[in-house]
Specification:
This protein is mainly α. It contains 12 helices and no strands. Pathway: Porphyrin-containing compound metabolism; heme A biosynthesis; heme A from heme O: step 1/1.
């Protein structure tokens, strides 16, 4: 068959049937639905700061015995404080029906009531602000389709936990309004605080993840240190247990018992540790006996400190400078938190020191999570010393 004179000439050794292929482009894993990772990270950082403040204000509310000053749960109408003398008197009259007033604060003036009311109102108002910031941000990113693939459920989960926290908060407060109760139930307080730290930790983890692209995380994970990750995970779990124990201490004012260290009442173990003030089974002493509750909190503090040292020694052998620095920070903050804890016990948990101790727990919790994250996704340093 004759070749057309207009047909292009082929090279002598050209392969028949070949097609031109485009060169591979790096970073394809992050293409497609990339979303607004940076903007979402900023939004989560705002939530992170608000939740941190919420935990601190919640601690101050408990330490000032302000939690029962508002005797109803009104998520919408409660956003406005009393605006007239009559409204203030109505709030005060409702509080005077509680056993906390009758048995502990009888004779309190309206001005004194207002001081505790503002703590509780501010705590609840901050919760409303957090819910509003989450709702506005989530709807904006959802409706503008700027949420990265795989992140819608995660961000929705943060909001769902926040809503659950509001319900748990009222469940906690309602326990203190029952007959014979002068404070909220300590185990409900522990659940409330534990959920707050869980939300706080989850937001922190998402902030860490969104600070790097999915491709960077995938590559970094190949250099992850499995044993260090395991040690940091153990720190995270034990640290969370210690936070719950701290809530039990605060719930029954156990921090104001036995103002001495390292002994308690002249001995390592407090006297009569299994006495139950309200009667009942001995296991209730772990929740109701101030000496035993504080003793358990001290023992777990010693165990947590020892585990921090063990994990830090392993982190010293990490080839990644950022990982070593992260665990150096964990060790330093642990030492500071132990010192503040001892001061809290020696001075019988005054408001300033006790609140500083709770804030220290927040900082240490974030540092542990950061160390754990870098153990899993290390910042790899090149031969030239630059971080990738």
């Amino acid at each position: 068959m004759a070749r057309s004179p207009d047909a292009p000439r082929r090279a002598l050794f050209e392969e028949v049937g070949t097609t031109e292929r485009s060169a591979a482009t790096p970073g394809q894993i992050d293409r497609g639905r990339r979303g607004a990772r940076g903007a979402i990270r900023v939004w989560l950082m705002v939530l992170f700061a608000l939740v941190a403040v919420m935990i601190a204000v919640g601690g101050a509310t408990r330490l000032t015995d302000s939690g029962l000053s508002i005797t109803e749960w009104a998520p919408i109408s409660g956003a406005l404080p009393p605006l007239s003398q009559a409204e203030w008197q109505a709030q005060f009259d409702a509080y005077r029906q509680t056993d906390e007033y009758r048995l502990q604060n009888e004779g309190m003036s309206l001005a004194e009531f207002e001081s505790i009311f503002w703590w509780e109102w501010g705590h609840r108002q901050l919760g409303r602000v957090i819910g509003l910031v989450w709702g506005i941000g989530f709807l904006f990113f959802l409706l503008t389709k700027r949420i990265p693939a795989g992140w819608t459920g995660r961000l929705l989960g943060v909001g769902a936990l926040g809503g659950l926290q509001g319900a748990v908060g009222w469940w906690m407060v309602s326990s203190g309004l029952r007959p014979g109760m002068l404070d909220v139930a300590s185990y409900r307080l522990a659940i409330h605080l534990g959920l707050a730290f869980a939300i706080f930790g989850l937001i922190a983890w998402y902030v860490f993840r969104l600070g790097r692209s999915e491709a960077e995380l995938l590559q970094a994970r190949r250099s992850g240190e499995r044993r260090l990750w395991g040690g940091a995970t153990g720190l995270m779990h034990l640290g969370f247990v210690q936070i719950l124990l701290g809530a039990l201490v605060a719930g029954i004012d156990a921090g104001r018992s036995f103002p001495s260290w390292p002994l308690m009442g002249g001995s390592f173990v407090p006297p009569d540790p299994f006495y139950v003030p309200s009667g009942g089974a001995a296991w209730r002493a772990f929740f109701e006996n101030p000496g035993l509750v504080q003793f358990v909190h001290r023992i777990v503090a010693y165990l947590l400190t020892a585990l921090v040292v063990v994990v830090w020694l392993r982190a010293r052998r990490s080839p990644h400078p950022q990982t070593r620095l992260a665990f150096n920070a964990v060790l330093a903050m642990t030492a500071l938190q132990v010192a503040i804890g001892i001061m809290t016990a020696l001075y019988a948990a005054p408001l300033g020191i006790a609140l500083l101790h709770q804030i220290g727990a927040v900082v240490l919790w974030v540092l542990i999570l950061r160390g754990r994250f870098l153990a899993r996704y290390p910042r790899v340093t090149s031969i030239r010393g630059t971080i990738r």
